Amino acid sequence: MEYLGSPDPIRITELTWLRKMIVERALTRGDYVLSGGARSDYYIDKFRLFSDPHVLRRVARMFTPVIAEINPDLIAGTELGGVVIATAVSQMAGIPMIAVRKEPKGYGAFPGEFVEGPYEKGHHVLLLEDVVTSGRELLSAKTRLEELGLRVTPCAVVSRGLAAVRSLIQFSLPRGQAQSEN
Prior knowledge:
Blueprint: H1 9-26, E1 27-33, E2 39-44, H2 47-50, H3 53-61, H4 64-70, E3 74-78, H5 81-93, E4 97-100, E5 115-116, E6 124-132, H6 136-147, E7 151-159, E8 167-170
Parallel strand pairs: 3-4, 3-6, 6-7, 7-8
Antiparallel strand pairs: 1-2, 4-5
């Protein structure tokens, strides 16, 4: 279930709480096409979690051991949900943040740019995503940052179990498990 940090009792309590929040607030059942094109009979609506400031703050605090381990210069978030998480983690840790776009910016002072916010070549970046299935978008963002000369450690809040990406929690359901009330 857990990828980041040691399996101490406090981490287990936090991960149990996160799993409960996902099931109670963010899990919907049906027939869904996920961002990578795969089909699933459940969907995790992360904004049902992250729109609650108490939940968002608690999830952000769960990245404390990761920050202590890698000591990043910057926190980065992928567009859109990763930016929400990165903002909360940045605020909690007092570390500046940048946002990584899916498509280059097409307007303003820096058209064609994928990254919003200041950075310097050689900075170590903790790159955050909300929910990953294949990890394709997170790894694409990682590549874009590395092309700019940044050192990148990618992490997600939730992995649906198919991505080779570190995450706070792996969350997957067998097909056809009992329906959620959401």
